[in-house]
Structure prediction request, 579 residues.
Amino acid sequence: MTATRVPAETGGTSAPVFVDVRGRRIRVVRSGDPAQPPVLLLHGIGRSLEDWAPQHERLADAHHVISVDMPGFGLSERMPEPVNLRSLAEGVLATLDALGEQRPVNIMGNSLGGAVALQILALAPDRVAGLALVNSAGFGKEVTIALRLLAIPGVGRRLLKGTDRKAARRTERALFFDGSFVTEERIEHALRMAEQPDHAEVFLEAARELGTFRGVRARWRSALLAEVARHPKPTLLLWGDRDLILPAHHMSAARAMLPHAQSHVFADTGHMPQIERADDVAGLLRRFLAAQEGQNT
Amino acid sequence: MSLAPYRFAGKTAVLTGAASGMGEHMAYGLGARGSDLVLLDRDAERLDAVAGKVRRAHPGIAVETLVVDLADRAAAAAAAEKVLAAHPRIGLLVNNAGVALGGRFDQLTLDEFEWVMDINFRAPVLLTHTLLPALTAVPGSHVVNVSSLYGLIGPAGQSAYSSSKFALRGFSEVLRAELADHGTGVTTVHPGGIRTRVAESARVGSGVSTEEVERHQRAFRGLLTYPAEKAAEEILAGVEHRRARVLIAASAKIPDVLARALPSSYGRVLGVLTAALARRAS
Prediction:
């Protein structure tokens, strides 16, 4: 099975399709002219490519934009391997292979997607052109109690089993500073993801791999950042200053570890500036990409 | 009633003396925290370099520069009006610019004394007065006045500097009490020996001999050992937490400062003090 080809001339966002990646169904959206420089968009834990939709449509005029439901997340099937940063990074790289995208890509990662982007850089530096990390995991220990609880054996499974409309609304509400972004559409999609057969399993594997009840594990963070520091790439760090999931003060650690990075903090913005400040984020991303491509904005 | 922590992101910060030292590093720190910047200094070239560096590191904020010599009262007033007109809402005003003047009181002219008072005291008063409507328009705004260790003690040889810094401290403490009702915070900063360009830009009283000048400059440079970057971060942390007073490098530096800066007439006191501190340290 191959990806449904999106006509080059469409420009805007196309519908999600499933591609075969090592025998598993991986859900992707790709748009823009495939000849344009590639941009890859990666979502957070328990989330999906929908979290990047506002940027996808804003960047597609000048880029080949690919967003992915990472293996096991969203509506994608999981890979046979245990879910961890390495297997997620390998799954994403295999997805790029399946799509025939072999050029170095600019990877934009939100939350867990940021850590996966860093892991891809560590694994395959030649395939990375640059990184935009948005409220990214990897730079500090503190993380919301909601994720820390999942790391407790027995507790996590019970919590995830109880994903009803009310719980889904509560989760969405924690992601935004402005409650008006919590739409019925987002809640419906969250419930649909929760119905996927491996949803709870993958979520728990990822949560326990990356953290304990006490917070995000230091071991993978320090090992990953040491590896990343060996391959400096153009980097843009973005954070919402009202993030309840990963606090904004992680930005200073991120800046210290990636001193070459550009950065911006958004006022009154939660865990997903790419949705809550869609135009501002798109403006910064376009300038970031244009600078690499040697164009004028 | 205590104020909520100051939130830097998305607010406009006006900063004087932004081209070097603590001001330069506060500009970097404010940019990193997501504040839009209005940077003032008399040194156009250095100011441009600082603004360029902030813009490259933080492409999402607006960075404006204004070249003005705060010793020129008319120019300072015009600059303040210009800032107010362009920015009806200001979150943070940092009165950081300052100059030093070496020499005993009898070795200074009154003009030299007034030069220090104009920059270190009258300019902050003028800027604060003019920009107050823009500051009170922003709930939870904040003002920082950078006084000095010499705003707390008055050593010989610092008549103008110490006078200006005592005056600024008094002004700042009154302002804190008065603005509390508006929900505006005020922090007074007392740096010890921060490594800045204040020594290079210091003037020396016209009655001071050449060897005295050299001795003064040596002493001043020797004092300035605390990194400006660290001092700037401590000030911004003080702003965030709405501290009334931020003492920088002072606790460690007071004996050092006294020993180097006070003339021999205070030697006995110093000797006792230093010995006591040395005993405690050992």
The mean pLDDT of chain B is 87. Chain B has ten helices and eleven strands.
